[in-house]
Amino acid sequence: MMTGHGEVKTPVFMPVGTQATVKTISNKELKECGIEMLISNAYHLYMRPGREVIEKAGGLHAFMAWDRAITTDSGGFQVFSLAELRKIKEEGVEFQSHIDGSRHFFTPENVVEFQDAVGSDIMMPLDECVHYPAERGYVEDSMDLTLKWAARSKKRFEELESGAILFGIAQGSTYKDLRKMCAEELIAIGLDGYALGGIGVGEPPELINEMTEYTASLLPEDKVRYLMGVGTPPDVLEAISSGIDMFDCVVPTRNGRNGQAFTFSGEMQLRNAPFKEDFGPIDPDCGCFTCRNYTRGYIRHLFNTDELLGLRLVSLHNIYFYAKLIEKSRKAIREGRFGKFKDDFLGQYRSGN
């Protein structure tokens, strides 16, 4: 797909840079891993450093010194997670800052305006993300609100004549008829791409895959389809099978900070005692900076002594692994052998766990 900061090949994985940074990883390292696009978060950027600072810096790309594409989430999930600190109205949502308790009001319009002002390449509209499980009546009301907000977001987006891309977010929890209704109405609104929201919010893995496959099948094949916040390497490959083009997830960095490394032969917890005298790389076949220079035993030592380098090295390895997994997936798709690639990967990956 074409963005304001260049072409992005799909499928694409976006490391999460919630507060204009991917935790512990430099932009240079992200590029060396092959990362084409990041995702940041409008709620957190709105709170700190704020619109005025980012605009004075020349926009989000200049502020964080990243010259490739940036997606921004609307911050809806963060706002709605503040359960006792917010009030939902049809106009928008009133909430208190999790930082200092100050009061704010998000509307579909001002969320689009904020993302436009900071120079987002791909914007997400304000929506309500419902946790699992949820009663049907609540999900239905929430979906109606999400659709009204999507239409208002589109109207304001067009008024701004933004050069960015605006997605819609298909909700409906685990109710297939509601997901179908939501997808159809979003398509009628007419958006540049479509995200699958409310998946990976507490469901068992088989339900995540079922709802992903079903919802993706409802969305136009000629538009980018984005699965928000999912997931593990097997989740990613299953979703690609369903036609998903974009992913973001904190798993590679969050788990990396806890010592968990991902490899094509499975996962490993580098804090564990068996690695104490293991002087091989995390993955002998990996070309990342960590695997070229450091051993499992040394990384275990770093975690056991609470040295920050340990969590940085494993996070870097995991980002590289995800980038390579996506790169290999693209190649397999081009060559018409993705099904076999997925089966071979899953067999090897699961046998190593």
How would you describe what is shown here?
The protein has 353 residues and is α/β, with parallel strands linked by helices. It folds into two domains: 2-204, Queuine tRNA-ribosyltransferase-like (TIM Barrel, Alpha-Beta Barrel), CATH 3.20.20.105; 256-351, no CATH class. The chain is 47% helix and 16% strand.
Keywords:
353 residues, alpha/beta, TIM Barrel, 2 domains, eight-stranded parallel sheet, three-stranded antiparallel sheet
Count of alpha and pi helical runs: 15
User: Which structural class should the secondary elements be placed in?
Assistant: alpha/beta
CATH class of the largest domain: Alpha Beta
- Average pLDDT value? 96
Query: Which ranges are low-confidence, i.e. pLDDT below 50, for 5 or more consecutive residues?
Result: none
- Number of beta-strand segments: 15
| Helix content range | 40-55%
Q: What's the CATH architecture of the largest domain?
A: Alpha-Beta Barrel
User: What is the N-to-C order of secondary-structure elements (H for helix, E for strand)?
Assistant: EEEHEHHHEHEEEHEHEHEHEHEHEEHHHH
**Number of domain modules:** 2
Q: How does the major sheet shape up? A: 8 strands, parallel
User: Cα-atom Rg, whole angstroms?
Assistant: 20 Å
Which secondary structure elements does this structure contain, and how are they paired or packed?
Layout: E1 2-3, E2 6-7, E3 12-14, H1 27-33, E4 37-41, H2 42-47, H3 51-57, H4 60-64, E5 69-73, H5 76-80, E6 86-88, E7 93-96, E8 103-106, H6 108-118, E9 122-123, H7 136-160, E10 165-170, H8 176-189, E11 193-196, H9 205-218, E12 224-227, H10 233-241, E13 246-248, H11 251-257, E14 260-263, E15 266-269, H12 289-293, H13 296-304, H14 308-334, H15 338-351
Helix pairs in contact: 1-14, 6-7, 7-8, 8-9, 9-10, 10-15, 11-14, 13-14, 14-15
